Amino acid sequence: MRLVVTGGAGFIGANFVHTVVREHPHAHVTVLDAMTYAANRTSLAGLPSDRVALVEGDCAAPGVTDRLVAQLTGPQDAVVHFAAESHNDNSLATPWPFVHSNIVGTYAVLEACRSHDVRLHHVSTDEVYGDLQLDDPGRFTPATAYNPSSPYSATKAGADMLVRAWVRSFGVRATISNCSNNYGPYQHVEKFIPRQITNLLTGQRPRLYGSGANVRDWIHVDDHNSAVLRILTAGELGRTYLIGADGEHSNLQVMQMICELMGATGTDGDPGFDHVTDRPGHDLRYAIDATATREELGWEPQHTDLWDGLRRTIEWYRENRDWWEPVKESVEAKYARTEKVL
Ligand code: NAD
Ligand code: DAU
Question: Which atom of ligand 2 is nearest to the CA of 254?
Fold first, then answer.
């Protein structure tokens, strides 16, 4: 099996490459990554060089994407498309890179797969469905209407629509997955969980947007990737699969868990973290109903104890300071330009 993994030097893509190398001894992976600020070469360090190659390039540039996809000639070969600008806060400040990478990038990947009749799996997000009310008993299903809120989620929704159109109009052999919030090793320190962990590791106070009532549906990155691999090998072409692990927690709850696990709970009415300026248009709640993915593909998440997953993630950031320390100061300086303590 030969795979082209776009965005494979980012958080989920790098974890995916590690999983493939570990679990598929005959697989060869070519990572195509633009090496934006979100990428890190050392996330792929230690992988066998005869099985993993990193090509630095923009997937929206048809030349490089087409050249790599053309090499996928075997029956099990495929493109797994993770590449995207992924951070909502950045999309609010500077939307253009999101339109470029997420929409034009997906277009170029689709055209290459169409030209060479190559199987594609497109990795997307639950944010395409917009948000749910906190007291809504419902969850997202593959039948939920698209209703994205941010420039990030709108560009991911646009990319999903391109994939659906290329399946129907051109017969491209593609599947789509929409997953909830991931956490685990190699996640950029701009994101919620690693930001709070690394704030505490550098003697800074954690930062909670608004009241912290917003709910996210957390899944360990290894569970997301095991579902992607299952869809790649057993999914029905043309289908959309939802991936989630029943991990709904409010941001306040997750913050309190991190503080407790790191011995940083406050005292005398001080919670130990700061409430700061809320995100404009902040989605209230995401929740995935992954019943169809579980029942049809026999997939089950393995890391569903969030306490345990957070404990292991904290340990990883403690032990891998060299991986995140070089960018920590600049990320916090960027946040400080707009963020005020409430
Ligand atoms: P990330 O920001 O950590 O990594 C994205 C990677 O894509 C980076 O290595 C970056 O350099 C690369 N990239 C960006 N633009 C590119 C381009 N034009 N050409 C080639 N490479 C490019 O993101 P992530 O959290 O690992 O997310 C990966 C994918 O999973 C994205 O498509 C995202 O929408 C989706 N997703 C993420 C989550 C989550 O919780 N993080 C949940 C569901 C879906
Ligand atoms: O739902 C899937 C999505 O999850 C993915 O598509 C995105 O790529 C990924 O970034 C993530 O989006 P969120 O916006 O939910 O993730 P983020 O880590 O930025 O924030 C999680 C929640 O925590 C959100 O409600 C905002 C809040 N937050 C975030 C930061 C960075 C804080 O309260 N404080 C913070 O410092």
Answer: 23
Distances from the Cα of 283 to the Cαs of 7, 132, 312, in angstroms? Answer: 25, 8, 28
Q: Are strands 174-179 and 52-56 parallel, antiparallel or unpaired?
A: unpaired
Tens-digit pLDDT profile for residues 217-273: 999 999 999 999 999 999 999 999 999 999 999 999 999 999 999 999 988 888 999
Annotated catalytic, 126?
A: yes
Question: Which DSSP string do the residues of 151-163 spell out, in sequence order?
Answer: HHHHHHHHHHHHH
Architecture of domain 2-183+219-243: 3-Layer(aba) Sandwich (3.40)
N residues, the chain: 342
Q: Which residues contact 190 (CB under 8 A, 6 or more apart)?
A: 87, 89, 90, 331
- Is 152 a residue of the active site? yes
Say which residue the tokens 């395409």 belong to.
128
CATH 3.90.25.10 intervals, the chain: 192-215+248-282+305-332
Which of 81, 139, 149, 209 to mutate to test ligand 2, by most ligand atoms within 8 A of the CB atom? 209
Backbone phi and psi for residue 14, each to the nearest 5 degrees, phi listed first: -65, -45
Closest CA relative to residue 248, chosen from 228, 219, 220: 219
Taking a C-beta distance cutoff of 8 angstroms, is the pair 79, 64 a contact? no
Span(s) in the chain for CATH 3.40.50.720: 2-183+219-243
Of the candidates 68, 78, 81, which has an alpha carbon nearest to the alpha carbon of residue 160?
81
Share of the chain residues as helix, strand and coil, in percent rounded to the nearest 5: 45, 15, 40
CATH code for the structural domain at 192-215+248-282+305-332: 3.90.25.10
Other Cβ atoms within 10 Å of 311 Cβ, number: 15
pLDDT digits (tens, 9 = 90+) for 1-16: 999 999 999 999 999 9
